[in-house]
Automatic annotation (TrEMBL):
Single GO biological process annotation from the record: positive regulation of protein ubiquitination
Stored InterPro entries: F-box-like_dom_sf (IPR036047), F-box_dom (IPR001810), LRR_dom_sf (IPR032675)
Name of protein: F-box/LRR-repeat protein 2 isoform X3
SUPFAM superfamilies: F-box domain, RNI-like
PANTHER family cross-referenced by the UniProt entry: F-BOX INVOLVED IN POLYQ PATHOGENESIS, ISOFORM A, F-BOX ONLY PROTEIN 33
Superkingdom of this protein's organism: Eukaryota
Gene this protein is translated from: LOC112681053
Location of the F-box domain: 20-66
Length: 504
């Protein structure tokens, strides 16, 4: 009888414990934590399940960062009235970041954000598709605690009417992004409009630390000069894909901006004469991107041997960057602080010179990108991998068809053995050039197990990609393996201001 009663009681306990494990019995704090990992679209779907989940979904802590641009994975808001109710009921004091498309940028919405969201510090305003602006003549309020502002410019709409209304509210800005239409420009020459007055904007933003002018077709050296004349706190300046920038005001820039340590000028039109006039030896620059510029060998040597503390160098797609430049950098420059190097598509560099450089300094590198050079094969990589024991980011290979083949199993085994800190890897080789055996799964297993910090592995779409992807998915690492068509790896992750430079 006692045994029967004991068995029965244990079953009751088991039933009770099982009931406590059902999701309906889960504490609100636990549900809230689970919801915090969902996108806002998913949260909205979950809110329809029951009253309790609807209450959880309305918790303002889940709505601190909101995108209302449906074309970039954001929520689609059907009307201004609905957005105004969201701001007052759901966003409130918890809102810190918001992205608004052109149709939702009105004086009423901005007034409501200023009044209801006192902790809003990050804002993105997307005017890129605008053909006509709303009327801002009645705009009297704007969020006053902004530290980050991103404005996606239109090709044809002049912004001064709107900007004049907000100048008095944005003097606390520390990070400014002005995003142009570089990726939308057609090859035909069209009239270029200066759709935003940079010279007036710089007067209203004296506290800027980070300025990113990306792909703006009217930005030239005078605009860089304007910002440097008023922004004494400037630490990072990026003018990537601003084709009118020649470097004529770079000397003045460094003379004024003593704190400037990061300068990104990828795909501009720098002139060697202007670059050589800069007093590099007196500058504080530590991170430099001059990729895609037509600078002479003499200019590159002159610059690299004079920069006192260079940590990050991106100098790909440059005919002038050859063995003489790399040798001069090794022998006369200060290389001991370098942690990131990008020399993509530098066809005038020999593998012998690169081997010499990497043998000497590879142990200190955290990022290395040597893509787009057919003569840099897996043989060189296998030789230098034992030195790259601190590497975090690597990009290798070329999309050109090679005469020889890449033994990818041996390469992956070498990476697994020598690069335990690796987080991001991209192999750009054509799938037809990759050779692997029936035992390839074992090499991938070893790579996956030893490189536990790996966040991203990018491969060209093909049979090897499918094998690697399936291997990682079986180990529940679903988001690691990606294709070159939708993802690329860059040393930019190692920039000190990387998080500040992210937009869109």
């Amino acid at each position: 009888m006692f045994i029967v009663q004991q068995t029965l009681s244990s079953k009751i306990v088991t039933v009770k414990s099982t009931q406590c494990r059902t999701i309906e019995k889960m504490p609100d704090k636990v549900l809230l934590k689970i919801f915090s990992y969902l996108s806002h679209k998913q949260i909205c779907s979950m809110s329809r399940v029951c009253k309790k989940w609807r209450t959880i979904a309305y918790n303002t802590s889940l709505w601190s960062s909101v995108s209302l641009r449906p074309e970039i994975s954001g929520l689609h808001v059907t009307s201004l009235e609905f957005l105004l109710s969201l701001i007052s009921v759901r966003f409130g004091p918890s809102l810190r970041y918001i992205e608004l498309p052109i149709e939702l940028i009105t004086h009423t919405v901005l007034h409501e954000l200023a009044n209801r969201c006192p902790n809003l510090t990050h804002m993105l305003l997307d005017f890129s598709t605008a053909m006509q602006l709303h009327d801002f003549s009645e705009l009297q309020a704007f969020p006053t605690k902004l530290r980050y502002l991103c404005v996606c410019l239109s090709e044809v709409i002049f912004m001064e009417g709107f900007m004049r209304k907000i100048y008095n509210f944005i003097n606390g800005l520390e990070i400014l992004h002005l995003i142009g239409t570089y990726e939308k420009v057609e090859e035909e020459e069209e009239e270029i409009y200066e759709v935003i007055n940079v010279h007036k904007l710089k007067s209203a933003t004296p506290n800027l630390r980070v300025i990113n002018l990306y792909g703006i077709n009217f930005v030239d050296d005078s605009h860089i000069d304007a910002f440097s004349s008023n922004c004494i706190q400037l630490e990072c300046l990026a003018v990537n894909y601003c084709s009118k920038v020649t470097g004529s005001t770079m000397k003045t820039l460094f003379q004024r901006s003593k704190r400037l340590r990061c300068l990104l000028m990828n795909q501009t039109n720098l002139i060697s004469e202007y670059v050589m006039q800069v007093e590099w030896e007196k500058s504080s620059v530590q991170e430099l991107d001059i990729s895609g510029n037509d600078l002479s060998t003499e200019c590159l040597i002159d610059m690299l041997v004079r920069i006192p503390t260079l940590k990050f160098l991106s100098a790909g797609q440059m005919n002038g960057f050859n063995d003489a430049v790399l040798n001069a950098f090794m022998e006369q420059g200060n290389v001991r602080h370098l942690i990131a190097l990008n020399l993509d598509y530098s066809d005038n560099l020999s593998d012998e010179c690169l081997y010499k450089f990497l043998s000497r300094y590879g142990h200190q590198l955290q990022g290395l990108s040597l893509a787009g050079m057919p003569h840099i094969t897996d043989q060189l990589w296998n030789t230098v991998l034992p030195v790259l024991n601190n590497i975090i980011i690597m990009v290798m290979g070329t999309q050109e068809r090679l005469s020889g083949n890449v033994l990818v199993d041996q390469l992956m085994d070498g990476i697994a053995t020598n690069c335990p800190r690796l987080e991001r890897l991209e192999l750009k080789w054509d799938p037809d050039n990759l050779r692997f055996s029936d035992k390839s799964q074992k090499a991938i297993d070893i790579f996956r197990v030893k490189c536990l910090k790996l966040k991203c592995l990018v491969l060209s779409d093909g049979r090897y990609y499918e094998i690697v992807k399936a291997n990682f998915e079986r180990a529940d690492r679903l988001t690691v393996v990606r294709t070159t068509t939708c993802c690329s790896v860059s040393n930019y992750y190692l920039l000190q201001n990387y998080k500040d430079l992210i937009f869109n």
